[in-house]
C-alpha cells in the first residue's frame, strides 16, 4: 500500500518579478532622459521555501505552502 507524501511549508516566500527595459528610440548617453518601456518577463514565487514548494510536486509530493500576508 502506497501512501501519498505531504509537505506543509512555512518560511519566506518572495515574489520574483523580472522586467526587461527597452528603449524604442535607442539609448543616448548624452541625453538626460531616454524614453523607455518596461516589459514584464517573469513573475514567479521565489526564496528558499517557495522554490522547494514549487519543485516537490514534480517529485510526486503534495506541497502546501502556509504563509501570512500583511
In terms of topology, how is this protein built?
Elements: E1 6-10, E2 14-22, E3 37-46, H1 47-55, E4 62-66
Parallel strand pairs: 1-4
Antiparallel strand pairs: 2-3
Features:
70 residues; 1 helix; single chain; two-stranded antiparallel sheet
Count of discrete domains = 1
Shape: elongated
DSSP strand (E) fraction? 35-45%
- Total helices: the number is 1
Q: Largest sheet, if any?
A: 2 strands, parallel
Describe this structure in words.
The protein is mainly beta and 70 residues long. The protein has one domain. Helix content is 13%, strand content 41%. The protein has 1 helix and 4 strands, in the order E-E-E-H-E. The protein has one helix at 47-55, and strands spanning 6-10, 14-22, 37-46, 62-66. A two-stranded parallel ribbon has the order 1-4. A two-stranded antiparallel ribbon has the order 2-3.
In short:
With 70 residues, the chain is mainly beta. Helices cover 13% and strands 41% of the residues.
Amino acid at each position: 500500500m502506497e501512501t501519498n507524501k505531504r509537505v506543509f511549508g512555512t518560511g519566506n516566500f518572495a515574489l520574483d518579478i523580472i522586467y526587461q527595459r527597452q528603449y524604442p528610440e535607442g539609448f543616448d548617453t548624452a541625453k538626460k532622459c531616454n524614453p523607455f518601456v518596461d516589459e514584464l518577463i517573469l513573475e514567479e514565487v521565489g526564496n528558499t521555501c517557495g522554490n522547494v514548494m514549487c519543485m516537490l510536486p514534480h517529485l510526486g509530493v503534495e506541497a502546501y505552502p502556509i504563509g501570512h500576508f500583511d
